[in-house]
Design a protein that fits this description.
Elements (H helix, E strand, L loop, with lengths): L5 E5 L3 H13 L3 E5 L2 H7 L7 E5 L7 H10 L6 E5 L4 H9 L4 E4 L4 H13 L11 H8 L4 H11 L4 H8 L3 H15 L4 H14 L1
Parallel strand pairs: 1-2, 1-3, 3-4, 4-5
Helix pairs in contact: 6-10, 7-8, 7-9, 8-9
Organism: Mesorhizobium helmanticense
Protein name: DNA-binding response regulator
GO molecular function: DNA binding
Length: 204
C-alpha cells in the first residue's frame, strides 16, 4: 500500500490540481499541490520526498525543463509526466531526460495510481542495472524489420501518420505493426514500450 507516500502535483490548471488532489488523497497518498514548476522549485528542499506528477505543457517552466532542473540540482525523485495525445513526442523526450513514466490524457484513475506506486517502488533502482534488459533484448529480436522501423518511429515520438509517410505505407498498416510490436514486447501501454526501448538503448 501507498501508506503516506507524498505526491507533488504540479499543474497550472486549478481544476486538474484539485481533481488529482482528491483522487490521490482517496488512494491514501499525502498530496501537495503546486500551481507551477516555478512555485514548486521555490519551495523544494535539498531532499524531495515521494514522487512528482506534472503536466508536460505549462507556462514558464514546462514539465521537461522542470525535470532537467531537478536532475541538475541532484534530485533523483521520480517524475511522472501527463501529456495530451498530441504531445507524445514531448513525453518521449521527457523519458529520455529521466522521467519515470508518462501518461496520456484522458487517463483512467487506476492507471495514474498504478504508475505512481510503480515509480515509488522503483525509485531506488538505477535504470542502468535494470534486471529485465536481457529479456527485453530477447523480445526485440523477435520483431520483423518493419516492426523495428515502426518501433523506432514510436520511440522518436512520431504519430502513426508520420511513421506511415516515412515508411511509404498506410496509417492502418502502421496500426497493425504497432499492435504486433506491443504484443511481442509485452507492453501494456505506449509509455511501457518506450521505457523498455530506452532501457535497451542505455545498455548500448
Amino acid at each position: 500500500m501507498a501508506g503516506n507516500d507524498l505526491v507533488h502535483v504540479v499543474d497550472d490548471d486549478v481544476d486538474v490540481r484539485k481533481s488529482l488532489g482528491f483522487l490521490l488523497a482517496t488512494a491514501d497518498f499525502a498530496v501537495r499541490l503546486h500551481e507551477s514548476a516555478t512555485a514548486f522549485l521555490s519551495t523544494a528542499t535539498s531532499n524531495i520526498d515521494g514522487c512528482i506528477v506534472t503536466d508536460v505543457r505549462m507556462p514558464g517552466i514546462d514539465g521537461i525543463e522542470l525535470l532537467r532542473q531537478l536532475r541538475a540540482r541532484g534530485h533523483s525523485v521520480p517524475v511522472i509526466v501527463m501529456t495530451g495525445h498530441a504531445d507524445v513526442a514531448l513525453a518521449v523526450q521527457a523519458m529520455k531526460e529521466g522521467a519515470a513514466d508518462f501518461i496520456e490524457k484522458p487517463f483512467d484513475d487506476d492507471i495514474l495510481i498504478d504508475a505512481i506506486r510503480s515509480a515509488l517502488a522503483n525509485r531506488d533502482r538505477p535504470a542502468a542495472t535494470h534486471p529485465q534488459s536481457a529479456e527485453i533484448q530477447a523480445r526485440l529480436s523477435t520483431l520483423s524489420e518493419r516492426e523495428k522501423q515502426v518501433l523506432d518511429g514510436l520511440v522518436s515520438g512520431l504519430p502513426n501518420k508520420t511513421i506511415a509517410y516515412d515508411l511509404g505505407i498506410s496509417p492502418r498498416t502502421v496500426e497493425i505493426h504497432r499492435a504486433n510490436v506491443m504484443s511481442k514486447m509485452g507492453a501494456t501501454s505506449l509509455s511501457h514500450l518506450v521505457r523498455m526501448a530506452l532501457i535497451v538503448e542505455s545498455k548500448r
